[in-house]
TrEMBL record:
It comes from the Bacteria. The lineage of its organism: Bacteria, Pseudomonadati, Pseudomonadota, Betaproteobacteria, Burkholderiales. It comes from Undibacterium baiyunense. Transmembrane segments: none annotated. This is HDOD domain-containing protein. Residues 21-217 form the HDOD domain. Pfam families: HDOD (PF08668).
Amino acid sequence: MSTSLHVRERLLDKIRSDKNLPTLGVTISKVIQITSSGEDSVSELAHFILSDVALTQKILHVSNTIAYRTAGGVSVTTISRAIFLLGFDTIKANAMATLLVDGFKDYKQAQSVRKELVQALCASVTAREIARRNRHPKSEEAAVAALFKNMGRILVAAFDHPLYEKIQSIGFDDPGQINEACIQLLGCSFERFGQSVLHDWKIPESIIFALQPLHGEVKKTAQDTEWIKQVASFSEELASTLVQNDESQIPIEQRCSQIVKRYGRALDINSNQLEEIFNNVDKEARQLAITLEVPLANLTTESTSTISQESDFCSEFMLPAFDTQQMQTVSRHPSGKPCNARDLLLAGVQDVTQMLASKQIKLNDLVLLVLETLYGAMGFRFATVCLRDLQLGKYTARISVGEKYIERQGAFQFSVDNEDSIFHVAMHNNVDLMIAETLNPKIQAMLPNWYKSLLPDTRSFIILPLIIDNKPLGLFYADRSLPAIEGVPPDETALIKTLKSQLMSAIMRR
């Protein structure tokens, strides 16, 4: 075996033996599988993000940067609202970029890895902008392919930094020379090396195919796979220019002119459109670049400089909003309920109000937002909305969040017939129930057998009936595995009832 092949195999073995990377690969594959088609895509993405506390906090932090918060007017405290405000694609790209950053952030050679990660995010944003302008059906794949285009470079920088630096020093930032140096020292190109690992991660073949390099003139194509490859290649080259250290003071548009010339006709891009792309890349990627301490080229022209000044002005004089990071890290009662539940509920009411004002609202998204607000603000373990199914003659859980939500949602159902269970009593009397301790003999006597079997360790819960014109539609249910001796004060109760009323109003408008 030649020296370079030995180096490649040794490095691949090292990567495959890393305990964190297989999990990272599975997690990223899961995000890729969540597509924007179908009614459940938003809830599926929200569920995925909510299952990771660190990812949830970082997505909320991005959502509350000045560039996004001014669009909504108030701070964002729920993932459902973040998806609604920023858009499905933006949240998805940021989630994948965040997962990559977390996966590689602990290495000593962090600066090189961080630089490559910022380049990956810039490329993904660029690809999404191009796809949005073309309204291409494969826009999702293009954005993901662009994000992974320099995965080989990220992996080598993370697992063999001396080799990465040696290849870079031989190449002197020239793509052709870097590729030759990589083949000489690693036995293959960075792209090929990245493809090997992405195969292990079970990334879709259409994405892996798009990582192959393009040669010669780039012509317009009708083939989806070739178009994705073109977008990914253009986006990576553009992003590479944005993160390069350049002391020549040459304007960024001029530095990218040859890239536009090569890809312009194939992807329908001109200099004016490039400026718009820069603005969106700057808005989305600069915050991550600042966080990772990676210098990003000055993308602002005279006009965008004015926008930047306006943002600074808004940031200084805007009405103060909730500090989402502080809200997520406050102390909790022994039950798990946040001590600032009132503030979290109030922020949720604001989120619902903003969503209700939109013409694009979907009822399922609104239900998820209310459910997520109750779940997070009150520190519940499991929360679900249970709706009446006339054909089955049952109330069945439809949307859920929290611990084992899929398993519990499937079994959370009960007959519509009058029974003496606590659920029927709540709906028959249209009264919101807040049970602080389920071991109370009166409560135990009213808990049905199916409930005791499904949730045997529940110690506190709430039931919020959904009744319109004396007709029961269903209910909200949420629980904890610990008693809630702190109770629910009147101001929190009022906000919970407001959330329910907002949802009922939306249902009646349909």
